[in-house]
Design goal:
The protein has 138 residues and is mainly alpha-helical. It has helices at 4-8, 12-17, 38-48, 52-57, 62-76, 96-105, 107-118, 125-135, and strands at residues 19-22, 27-30, 78-82.
């Protein structure tokens, strides 16, 4: 039987260093978007401040909201990537600007990154070791 501490404790080192999401070639390193990522909370607060009234009244556009969240993720969740290319196959170096563009251009990818970054289980060392073992057929 697991204790609450085993169930709800993430590895602080993984939360700080991040985990790689592998997309069959391209890989993206992400940090946790949970309550332990103070940078995420600070950047989200800063980016939402100028449009707080629009958010409260529900008149912010979907595109504007998505762009703001993409900027937040580019600044505080995505820390690196490998093998990411543009539509023409040109290598995209990791930068905040390139990350925002990719997240806005590929909303399904953005959704996957959001889900993985908010899933605490992705930042538990035992969980990661078990997944690696299963993916290697051991």
């Amino acid at each position: 039987m697991n204790s609450l501490y085993q169930t709800f404790s993430a590895d602080p080192d993984l939360e700080k260093s991040g985990v790689w999401l592998d997309f069959g070639g391209p890989r993206i390193r992400i940090l946790r978007s949970g309550p332990t990522n103070q940078r995420f909370i600070r950047v989200l607060t800063e980016k939402q401040r100028p449009v707080a009234a629009q958010i409260r009244t529900g008149v912010i556009s979907e595109d504007q909201s998505r762009k703001i969240l993409a900027e937040v993720f580019a600044e505080s969740i995505i820390t690196d990537w490998q093998g990411v290319t543009d539509k023409e196959g040109n290598v995209l170096e990791f930068s905040k600007e390139n990350a925002v563009k990719v997240l806005c251009d590929l909303p399904d990818l953005f959704t996957i990154i959001q889900e993985h970054s908010s899933n605490m289980a992705n930042f538990r060392q035992g969980q990661i070791e078990e997944e690696e073992k299963n993916s290697n057929g051991v």
